[in-house]
Amino acid sequence: MPYQYISLERCEGIAIIRLQRPEALNALNRQMIEELEQCFMELEADKKAGAIIITGEKHFAAGADINDMLEFSPEQARAFSFRHCFARIEAFPKPVLAAVSGFALGGGMELTLVCDWRIADKTARFGLPEINLGIFPGAGGTLRLPRLIGTARAKEMIFSGGTIKAEQALEYGLINQIAEDALAETIKTAQMLAGKPPIALKLAKQCISQAFDIDGVKAIEFESIAWASCFATRDQREGMQAFTEKRKPEFQGI
Prior knowledge:
CATH class of the largest domain: Alpha Beta
Strand order of the largest sheet: 1-2-3-5-7-10
Number of helices: 11
Number of strands: 10
CATH architecture of the largest domain: Alpha-Beta Complex
CATH topology of the largest domain: 2-enoyl-CoA Hydratase, Chain A, domain 1
Order of helices and strands: EEHEEHHEEHEEHHEHEHHHH
Shape: globular
């Protein structure tokens, strides 16, 4: 389907989604979020795309569009929340990577938090400035950020509303890597992940997510069942056979 505020490009086993509201520093409005959610629904059925990249034109995304929210009632604010779209991206069965340049603020930073892998260049700036607007992160940021960087640093970022540079984000564990060209490096990483066994990747991602949502005993049992189910796949046999034959495996997602 045609999109107004995002674009979708497929290349060499991956898909690249670009946020495209450059005149507003890619601030997230309701239509952009609806397009993003629709795009991920479309990609769920795309067997050729083994990994997804989200990036932006010049900037990643400088938060939500404040003009949309000025006169909201509590009910309207709850309806506007991006939580459903972000939850869909977080639960997406394939690896999702963020290539970050420029601003990743507010809802834009929360969007990076639902990605599995984050690569930034030295221009990247991360922050949750909502507190300076009389609100706080409302699209999962208060839950996901402490899990990623710890409670103390999450409180520091959320309470202060300040921004941090890429180097500090790497020190915090907020990003995986700093690269000279964030998108080029992310494409290389995405293509590497697209070459891994899709079923095992999907199950590994589910197990990692479950680790935060259920108690330890149940999480270990869930992992055990998911791990054992890999032995029903052709990919498991191919991977182990290739190892013993000292060749590169050819995974097919079956």
